[in-house]
Amino acid sequence: MSPTDAGFYYAEGENTPLHVGSVAVFEGPAPSYGDLVRLLLSKLPLVPRYRQRVREVPLNLGRPMWVDDPHFQILYHVRHTALPRPGSDEQLRNLAGRVLGQRLDMAKPLWEVWLVEGLADDRWAIISKVHHCMVDGIAGTDLMQVIFDLSPDVKQAEPKEWTAQRSPSSAELLAGAVQDALAHPLRQLTALPGSGTATRTAKGLLGSGKSLASSLPSLARQATTPMARTLTGPIGPHRRWAWTDAQFEEFKAARTALGGTVNDVVLTAITRGFRDLLQGRGALSDKAVVRSMVPVSVRRPGERGSLDNRVSAVFVDLPVGEPDPAERLARIRRQMDDYKRSMQAVDARSIIAMADFVAPTLLSLGVRAAMELGQFWAQAVTTNVPGPRVPLYVLGKRMVSAHAYVPIGGGTRVSIGIFSYLNTMTFGINADFDAFPDVDVLATGIRRGVDELTELAGKAPAKEKPAKESAAAQQ
Fold first, then answer.
1. Residue 324 pLDDT
2. By the 8 A CB rule, do 418 and 383 touch?
3. In CATH terms, are 3-157+165-172 and 209-350+359-388+406-474 the same topology?
4. 165 vs 48: CA distance, rounded Å
5. What are the pLDDT digits (tens) for 148-186?
6. What is the reported pLDDT for 81?
7. d(Cα 100, Cα 140) in Å, to the nearest integer?
8. Do 191 and 350 touch, CB atoms closer than 8 A?
9. N- or C-end of the chain: fewer Cβ atoms within 10 A?
10. Which residues does the chain have with pLDDT short of 70?
C-alpha cells in the first residue's frame, strides 16, 4: 500500500467505517441476482484488487500488502434485498443509510454490491461500497466503467476461471518489509521532480518551503476565525443519509452571470445549507464559518484508472454568517483562487510522497491517534466527483440517477459527496445519526442555495468568460 492508502486502512475503527459508496437507480425491470453475479464475475479480471484482501506485516514493520484471497467467494460480496412495493425514495435512502453505515469485513476483499428491488415506477437500485484504501473518488468514477456499459446492447463476456496466487509467508513479509524500508526512500529521493541531483532536490524542497511559508498568514487567519463548534464531536456507530439534486445548467448559469467556477457556485449553495442548519439550531453568528475539507485530485492524466489514492486537500471557510449570497460567492471565490495559486507553487505530489519516509509503525500510530483525538481544524468534508455526461447501462438497463457516499471520521460528523451524471448534480449527505437529527434541513438548504443563486443570476448582467477556459476550470 502507499502511505495514503495505509492511512485510510489504519484509520478504520468501530465507529468510523472508511468506505466510499454510491446508490445508483435504474429503469426496470430488475435483473436477476444470478445475472448480476455473472456480470461482476466477468468484469473482475479488469480489477484484480477486488479479489484481494489486506495482509498486515508482523509488528507493523512494513505497510499492509494486497494479496489474493484464496477463499474468495463472490456470493459473499454481492447481496440481494428488496423494499416493500412500491418503495419510495425515502425508504431507499433509509436502507442505503443502514447498508453504507455498516463496516466492511476487514478480513475479506473490501467491497460489497447490493441489488435492491421493489422501487416505485418499476425501478431498482445498486448500492455499492468499497474501502477508501482501495480507491479514491476519481479512480472510483473510472471503475464504474468496468461495471457499466455505454450501450444497452452490449453482449457480456462469460466469467473465466481464476486461481489465487500464493500468499507470502510471515517470514517473507518481514524480509520484504526490511528490504523495502531500505530501498524505497532512496527510490523516492531520486524520483522527486527536479531532483536529479542533491542540489536540485534541495532547491525544490526550499521552493516548496517558501510557498508553504507564504500560506502561513492565511492559516493563521483560519486559526483565529470563529467556527460553529456544534458540528464536531464524538461519532457514534449509526448514520443518517440524505440527498438533494440540482441541474448542472443551474450552476453554469450562475457561474456565467456571477463569475467564478462551477465548484465555487456549488460551495456557495452548500454554505446556504449550513447557514439554515445553524440558524435552526440557534448557533448562527455574523462572523462564523463552517470550515470544510475539500479533497483535490493530484492524479495525472496518464494515471486515471489506477487503484491507489492520489489526493491532497484544501480547507475552505464557508461564510455561513454572511447574509448576502453574492458576497458568499465572492469570498469563496477568493479563497479558491488563492488555493489554486498555492497548489501550482507547491508540488503536492512530492509532499504526499514524503510520507514514504515515515516508518510504518509510526504511521499507523499517528493515524489512529489523529482519528481518536478528533479533527478540530475542519467541520465538514465536501468532495466533488465529476461523473459521465453520457448514459450508462447495467445489463441493458439505463441508470437514471446516482448519489455518492463519503465517510466521516475524526470528529468531523458530516460529509457531502457531490456527483454529476448527465445534466444532474447530486448531493449525498452522510452524517452521524445522533448529532444530525436535522440533516434534512441541510439538504433542503442546499437546494435553496441553488435557487437563490439562480434567481440572482437571472437579475445580473453576464460576466465575460475567458475565450479558452479549460474543463477543469469550469468544474
1. 94
2. yes
3. yes
4. 11
5. 888 898 888 888 888 888 877 777 776 666 656 555 555
6. 96
7. 16
8. no
9. C
10. 60, 136-145, 174-229, 296-313, 342-377, 461-475
Per-residue confidence (pLDDT) for residue 308, from 0 to 100: 45
Q: List residues with catalytic annotation.
A: 132
Q: According to the model, what pLDDT value does residue 268 have?
A: 95
How many Å apart are CA 318 and CA 274, to the nearest integer? 9
C-alpha R_g of the chain? 23
* Residue 371: Cβ-neighbour burial (10 angstroms; 0-12, 13-18, 19+): buried
C-beta of residue 413 within 8 angstroms of C-beta of residue 274: no
Output the 3-class SS for the chain: CCHHHHHHHHHCECCECCEEEEEEEEECCCCCHHHHHHHHHHHHHHCHHHHEEEECCHHHCCCCEEEECCCCCHHHHEEEEEEEEEECHHHHHHHHHHHHHCCCCCCCCCEEEEEEEEEHHHEEEEEEEEECCCCCHHHHHHHHHHHCECCCCCCCCCCCCCCCCCCCCHHHHHHHHHHHHHHHHHHHHHHCCCCCCHHHHHHHHHHHHHHHHHCHHHHHHHHHCCECHHHECCCCCCEEEEEEEEEHHHHHHHHHHHCCCHHHHHHHHHHHHHHHHHHHHCCCCCCCEEEEEEEEECCCHHHCCCCCCCEEEEEEEECCCCCCHHHHHHHHHHHHHHHHHHHHHCCHHHHHHHHHHCCHHHHHHHHHHHHHHCCCCCCEEEEEEECCCCCCEECCEEEEEEEEECCCECCECEEEEEEEECCEEEEEEEEECCCCCCHHHHHHHHHHHHHHHHHHHHHCCCCCCCCCCCHHHHC
Domain ranges of the chain: 3-157+165-172, 209-350+359-388+406-474
209-350+359-388+406-474: CATH, from 3.40.47.10, 3.30.559.30, 3.40.1190.10, 1.10.3720.10? 3.30.559.30
**What kind of fold does domain 3-157+165-172 have according to CATH?**
Chloramphenicol Acetyltransferase (3.30.559)
pLDDT of residue 449: 96
Determine contact, residues 444/427, Cβ cutoff 8 Å.
no
Cell output for 311? 489526493
